[in-house]
Design the sequence.
């Protein structure tokens, strides 16, 4: 670091994003992207918006927000769209957490939570998962701290039920509970309807996974009007034009083609079940993932070795070095032919081993 770098960040460990290699063409099953292109409407609308890039975008994102609110069944005032769901999560850390309002989240979860806490100088506690990688709901009941939970969790893919989430929200009425639903569309029930019942619930989602827009950076939060107003204060104090014209237009196109999104999600869940069954035949053990990935280990082979050997064969998966999950690899669900290539490569690797 330079001699000018602020000492307040000297111990900051940044988030490590998944590999985006440029030197070789890989089967990319490492960053939970969709295997499908965005809908034709999204591409068309984004192309048209490119003709006006000399003009600032609408800071209110009015048309997109209205369509999104209608899609998820809430009012315009209950939604804030952001530059990916990472932005809405960071806004929530900034708006609701400080030295007097610490935060808790699982010790195995989305890696950005600890980074957001560190960079915003917020005290935080990481609560261990159960031995089977599930979140113990009782650990979060009435703890009187702000709470961030990914549901389904990452990288395990295991989800809490709607009633379990409600118990957590209800038992912490004086603290904000943020439920990160990045993977909710692959077989889970959203807790968005609960925002009408609880003023301390913020639900975040993304267009990156189910809506094929990881490269466009579009996310959103849903909560009561007062929470959204707080988050807007942070937005307008940092980056009022946070959604560019092309992304905004593409998002509108995506929302006008929900049938496409639902069909893609159905295909991905079918491919997930196919992949899980094939991996079981090879002796792999997996969590009960309801996301667009599986989390798998083999009892007779080191997890990092599997990752490296797959990489040699042109297939990228995500390996984590944290001790508790170091024997596992997170495998994004791609197109059926990509999953067949994965299975065939694993057969070869296990045979060689």
Sequence:
């Amino acid at each position: 670091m330079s001699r000018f770098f602020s000492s307040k960040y000297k111990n900051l460990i940044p988030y490590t994003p998944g590999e985006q290699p440029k030197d070789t063409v890989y089967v990319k099953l490492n960053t939970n992207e969709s295997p499908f292109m965005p809908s034709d409407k999204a591409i068309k609308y984004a192309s048209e918006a490119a003709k006006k890039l000399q003009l600032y975008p609408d800071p209110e994102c009015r048309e997109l927000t209205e369509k999104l609110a209608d899609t998820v069944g809430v009012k315009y005032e209950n939604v804030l769209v952001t530059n990916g769901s990472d932005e809405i999560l960071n806004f929530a850390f900034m708006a609701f957490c400080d030295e007097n309002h610490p935060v808790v989240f699982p010790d195995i979860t989305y890696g950005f939570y600890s980074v957001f806490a560190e960079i915003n100088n917020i005290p935080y506690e990481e609560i261990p998962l159960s031995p089977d990688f599930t979140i113990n709901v009782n650990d979060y009941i009435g703890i009187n701290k702000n709470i961030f939970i990914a549901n389904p969790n990452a990288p395990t893919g295991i989800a809490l039920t709607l009633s379990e989430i409600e118990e957590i929200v209800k038992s912490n009425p004086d603290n904000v509970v943020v439920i990160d639903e990045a993977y909710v569309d692959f077989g889970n029930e959203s807790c968005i309807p609960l925002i009408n019942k609880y003023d301390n619930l913020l639900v975040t989602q993304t267009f990156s996974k189910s809506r094929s827009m990881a490269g466009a950076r579009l996310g959103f939060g849903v909560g009561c009007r007062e929470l959204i107003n707080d988050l807007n204060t942070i937005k307008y104090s940092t980056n009022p034009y946070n959604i560019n014209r092309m992304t905004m237009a593409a998002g509108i196109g995506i929302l006008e083609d929900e049938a496409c999104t639902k069909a893609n999600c159905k295909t991905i869940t079918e491919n997930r079940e196919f992949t899980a069954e094939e991996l079981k035949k090879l002796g792999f053990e997996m969590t009960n993932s309801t996301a667009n990935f599986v989390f798998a280990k083999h009892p007779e082979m080191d997890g990092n070795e599997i990752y490296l050997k797959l990489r040699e064969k042109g297939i990228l998966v995500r390996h984590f070095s944290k001790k508790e999950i170091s024997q596992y690899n997170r495998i994004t669900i791609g197109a059926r032919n990509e999953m067949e290539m994965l299975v065939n490569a694993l057969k070869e690797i296990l045979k060689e081993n």
